[in-house]
C-alpha cells in the first residue's frame, strides 16, 4: 500500500547538491498527499532563487516515480524562513569574529563562468583604479583552488591575527588582500578541498577577516557557477556583478551561464568588460583582433547589460603581473571603466 511514509523514505535518498544532505534530514519535505496512485509533495528550498531548484525537483520526482505504486507526481516548492536556514547552517549562520566591526560599503563580484578570461586582472585593475581615486579598497580572493591575486601584487607575507580576527595583507598602495595563498606554507601547494570546505573558507574570509572600513571590496570569483559563486552570492552583501569575457564564441556561451546564475540569485549585473579585445603593434600602431572581431557591445546588448569597455592584450601587463608589480601600471585606459561602474552602482542603489 502506498503511504506518505514510503514517499518520505524515497525522498531520503535525494540530496541537496550544495549541502550534501538529504531532503528529509534538511526538513525540506513539508507535506505529502497520496490520492490513489497520484502523489503531491511540497518542498521548501533553501532560497526561492536557488539555481539548483530544477535538479532537486527532477531528482525528487524520479525517486518517487521509482515506487511501483506511483503513476503521477506533482511537486510544488516554497522557501525556507531565516530561522529554518539558521537551523541547517545557512543564511543566518553565526557571525564571524570580525564581522560586527567591519564597515564595507560596496561588494563587487567579478565573474565570468569561464577560466582564463582575466577576472583576476580585472579585479586588480578595478581595485587600483578605485584606490587611485582615493577610495579604501580590499580584494577578497574567492578562487580558493587557483588563487592569483597575491602573485599579481607581489604579496608573500602571512596575515597576522588579533582580538578582532585575521588582518588582511596590504599592498604597497594600501589595498587590503585576503587569499588562501597567503595562508599556505608554500605558494605552490595545492588546495585539494571539496565544495563545503571551499564555501567555509569564503565565509571566513568575509566574517573572520578584519577589513575595517572599506568603500569597495572586490571579490575575485573562480570559474564556474557552483560552490564558490553560490556562497558569495548567498553569504555576502553583493552590490553587483561585473562580467568579464573575451571575443570568442565559447567565452560568450559560458558568460551567459554566469549571467543567468546572477539573475536567478537576484544579484544586479552592472556591466560587461571585454578582455583581450585587440593587440596594438608597437612598431606600426595598428590594432589586430587576434581572437576574432570584437563582440563585447553585441554581447552586452544581448544580455541586456551595460558595456563597460575593452581591454587590449598588453605584454607589459603580463610582465608586471608576473613580477608582482601591477601597481606600477598606468591606469589611464582603465579609469573611465571604474568611473562608469561607480555611476552604475549609485544608480542601482537609487532604484532600490
Report what the structure shows:
The protein is α/β, with parallel strands linked by helices. It folds into 2 domains: 4-87, 2-Layer Sandwich (GMP Synthetase, Chain A, domain 3), CATH 3.30.300.130; 99-351, Rossmann fold (3-Layer(aba) Sandwich), CATH 3.40.50.300. It is 33% helix and 22% strand. It has 11 helices and 19 strands. It has helices at residues 4-11, 53-65, 82-87, 119-132, 149-153, 195-207, 227-235, 249-264, 296-303, 315-322, 335-351; strands at residues 15-16, 21-22, 29-35, 38-45, 72-79, 103-104, 107-111, 137-141, 160-162, 165-167, 169-170, 176-178, 213-214, 216-220, 238-245, 269-274, 279-280, 287-288, 307-310. Strands 11-12-8-14-7-15-16-19 form an 8-stranded mixed β-sheet, sandwiched between helices. It has a 3-stranded mixed β-sheet with strand order 3-4-5, covered by helices on one side. The protein has a two-stranded antiparallel ribbon with strand order 1-2. Helix 6 runs parallel beside helix 7 (227-235). The chain is globular. It starts with a helix and ends with a helix.
Amino acid at each position: 500500500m502506498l503511504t506518505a511514509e514510503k514517499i518520505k523514505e524515497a525522498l531520503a535518498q535525494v540530496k541537496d547538491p550544495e549541502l550534501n544532505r538529504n531532503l528529509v534530514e534538511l526538513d525540506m519535505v513539508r507535506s505529502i498527499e497520496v490520492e490513489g496512485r497520484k502523489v503531491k509533495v511540497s518542498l521548501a528550498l533553501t532560497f526561492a532563487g536557488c539555481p539548483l531548484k530544477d535538479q532537486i525537483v527532477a531528482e525528487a520526482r524520479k525517486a518517487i516515480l521509482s515506487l511501483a505504486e506511483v503513476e503521477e507526481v506533482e511537486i510544488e516548492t516554497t522557501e525556507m524562513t531565516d530561522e529554518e536556514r539558521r537551523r541547517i547552517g545557512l543564511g543566518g549562520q553565526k557571525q564571524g569574529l570580525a564581522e560586527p566591526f567591519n564597515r564595507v560599503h560596496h561588494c563587487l563580484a567579478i565573474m565570468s563562468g569561464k577560466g582564463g578570461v582575466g577576472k583576476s586582472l580585472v579585479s586588480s585593475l578595478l581595485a587600483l583604479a578605485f584606490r587611485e581615486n582615493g577610495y579604501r579598497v580590499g580584494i577578497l580572493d574567492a578562487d580558493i583552488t587557483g588563487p592569483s591575486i597575491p602573485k599579481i601584487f607581489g604579496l608573500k607575507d602571512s596575515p597576522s591575527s588579533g582580538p578582532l580576527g585575521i588582518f588582511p595583507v596590504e599592498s604597497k598602495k594600501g589595498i587590503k588582500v585576503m587569499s588562501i595563498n597567503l595562508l599556505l606554507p608554500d605558494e605552490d601547494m595545492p588546495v585539494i578541498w571539496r565544495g563545503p570546505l571551499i564555501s567555509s573558507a569564503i565565509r571566513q574570509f568575509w566574517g573572520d577577516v578584519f577589513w575595517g572600513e572599506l568603500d569597495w571590496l572586490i571579490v575575485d570569483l573562480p570559474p564556474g557557477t557552483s560552490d564558490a559563486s553560490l556562497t558569495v552570492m548567498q553569504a555576502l552583501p553583493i552590490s553587483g556583478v561585473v562580467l568579464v569575457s573575451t571575443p570568442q564564441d565559447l567565452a560568450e556561451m559560458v558568460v551567459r551561464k554566469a549571467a543567468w546564475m546572477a539573475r536567478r540569485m537576484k544579484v544586479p549585473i552592472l556591466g560587461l568588460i571585454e578582455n583581450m579585445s585587440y593587440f596594438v603593434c608597437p612598431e606600426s600602431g595598428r590594432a589586430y583582433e587576434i581572437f576574432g572581431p570584437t563582440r563585447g557591445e553585441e554581447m552586452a546588448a544581448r544580455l541586456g547589460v551595460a558595456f563597460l569597455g575593452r581591454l587590449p592584450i598588453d605584454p607589459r601587463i603580463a610582465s608586471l603581473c608576473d613580477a608582482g608589480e601591477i601597481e606600477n601600471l598606468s591606469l589611464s585606459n582603465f579609469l573611465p571603466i571604474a568611473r562608469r561602474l561607480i555611476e552604475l552602482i549609485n544608480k542601482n542603489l537609487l532604484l532600490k
